[in-house]
Design brief:
It comes from Campylobacter novaezeelandiae. There is one protein chain. With 463 residues, the chain is α/β, with parallel strands linked by helices. It folds into two domains: 308 residues, 3-Layer(aba) Sandwich (UDP-N-acetylmuramoyl-L-alanine:D-glutamate ligase); 145 residues, Rossmann fold. Helices cover 36% and strands 23% of the residues. The protein is built from 16 helices and 18 strands. The strands form four sheets. Strands 5-4-1-8-9-10 form a six-stranded parallel sheet, sandwiched between helices. Strands 16-15-14-17-18 form a five-stranded parallel sheet, sandwiched between helices. Helix 5 links the parallel strand 8 and strand 9. Helix 6 packs across helix 7 and helix 9 packs across helix 10.
Length: 463
């Protein structure tokens, strides 16, 4: 997929609230004698693209041919946006271009100061006229709404209705508690709180999530219904509910994550990528962004390399893993073991196991389980370190740690298609064999075992 996307350059139109993000990087080492507040010493200031402009930057980083259409003020920040973006901006005299100043101390955002106008624009018809001159040239249209007065109901409906006549997808990052102005769009990307306000329901937990996401699709006549779930990932409803689990390992700053999600979705749909795959890409894009400070864009290479660089992301608990497997229509292969000291025999065994299906899951005995099975001096390596070593192999898709003596409960929970064991189980009962469609026995490489390695090490130490 990435090789295909890297060759694409879809034309995407971004309309909405274009802003400037100012970052003030400071040192802080003392409290003011005048009031109980920190004294900040400015070290560096930097202006970045924010709001719809950050969406624009994300699309450019992905490789899209992007054009911006909007309204800015006749001020320094409006000029900054005009210089940075390939755009047509209508100038409304006396209007402030949105400026968000963030104070950063010790890699933490401690204060944000907003300087802006958020009344509805006075150039509504002029914007619609400009839109109708150009919209048919684009593969997708993205509405970036930050409730600053550009995307009025009249403008939104004119855009959506015109685009629908020519089958051009319209993606909306919504704001406010009335989504009726977005009716007929291809998709919206509200977070949980935004969806709750618009749907006027109490919660989106458990079964209520399916109810809410279907209601969102029906009430606002959407092709796809999406709700972003923060640390739980992305929920998608097309003909059924899909949960795409979050990918992030460490979260430093959530600024701009929503912009990266909708930019990746727009890029993907403009390239005719199926919606489920588009959501998976968007999830990875968000994971890259929240691992950085401030509003940043993310490239296809960063998304491509995310899982490669973070093999720990393959280590899941059984609940997380089940969510992933429910979204996959693939052949699941399962094997298990202690894998205390990973050796050549293990590598060849797992490589052969992977070839038996699409997704290879390795069940790993916990430290407590290994001690019960192997004795008080085992394991040599901790369960986390053993899991990381297994996850580092490209042919291992997921590692899940279990605490029982056998993987029976885990197999029953995950319901894999193929169960793999070593050839020494020939004519023996394999735990979980009645729960799977097929059991495969794989020959071990001769001369390799953890016990032999430990014996050699101990023998050399004695000599």
């Amino acid at each position: 997929m990435f090789d295909f996307l890297a060759k694409q350059k879809p034309k995407i139109l971004v309309i909405g609230d274009f802003m400037v993000d100012c970052y003030v990087w400071c040192d802080s080492s003392r409290i003011s004698p005048e009031a109980p507040v920190m004294i900040m010493k400015s070290k560096k200031q930097e202006k970045r693209l924010g709001g719809g402009a950050n969406v624009y930057a994300n699309l450019k980083a992905l490789g899209a041919d992007v054009f911006a259409l909007g309204v800015v003020g006749d001020d320094e920040n409006g000029n900054f946006l005009k210089e940075k973006l390939n755009s047509y901006f209508l100038i409304q005299k006396g209007r402030k271009t949105s400026l968000k100043s963030r104070i950063i101390a010790h890699n933490q955002q401690v204060l944000r100061l907003d300087d802006e106008d958020d009344e509805d624009i006075k150039l509504e018809q002029e914007l619609i006229t400009e839109f109708k001159k150009i919209f048919r040239n684009f593969n997708a249209i993205l509405l970036s709404d930050y409730a600053k007065g550009v995307l009025t109901p009249k403008i939104c409906q004119n855009i959506i209705q015109s685009a629908n006549e020519f089958n051009i997808p319209v993606l909306v990052d919504p704001k406010g508690d009335d989504f009726s102005k977005y009716k007929g769009a291809t998709l919206l990307t509200p977070n949980k709180q935004e969806a709750l306000k618009a749907l006027k329901i109490n919660n989106l937990e458990g079964e209520n999530l399916q109810y809410g996401i279907e209601k969102l699709k029906k009430d606002f006549d959407l092709k796809y219904s999406i709700i972003t779930l923060s640390e739980d990932g992305i929920a998608l409803f097309d003909e059924k509910l899909h949960i795409i689990p979050a990918k992030a390992l460490e979260v430093y700053d959530v600024t701009g994550a929503g912009d990266s999600v909708i930019a990746t979705l727009a890029f993907s749909l403009a390239c005719n990528i199926p919606i489920l795959e588009a959501c998976e890409l968007a999830n990875k894009a968000a994971a890259v962004v929240v691992g950085k400070i401030g509003s940043v864009s993310v490239s296809l290479d960063e998304i491509r390399n995310f899982n490669k660089n973070n093999f720990e992301n393959k280590i899941k608990n059984k609940e997380e893993l089940l969510k992933i497997l429910k979204t996959e229509n693939k052949k699941i292969v399962f094997t298990n073991g202690c894998f205390d000291i990973v050796h050549f025999g293990h590598i060849k065994y797992l490589e052969k196991a992977k070839k038996l299906g699409d997704i290879l899951i390795v069940g790993l005995n916990s430290d407590a389980s290994v001690k019960r099975l192997k004795g008080k001096n085992r394991p040599i390596n901790s369960e986390f370190h053993r899991a990381c070593m297994l996850a580092a192999f490209y042919f291992v898709d997921f590692v899940v740690i279990f605490d029982e003596d056998t993987p029976l409960e885990l197999i029953s929970f995950l319901k894999p298609d193929v169960l793999v064991k070593g050839a020494d189980y020939q004519n023996k009962e394999v735990v979980g064999e009645k729960l799977v469609s097929k059991v495969e026995l794989i020959d071990f490489e001769e001369g390799f075992s953890t016990s032999n390695i430990i014996y050699k090490i101990n023998n050399q130490a004695l000599n």
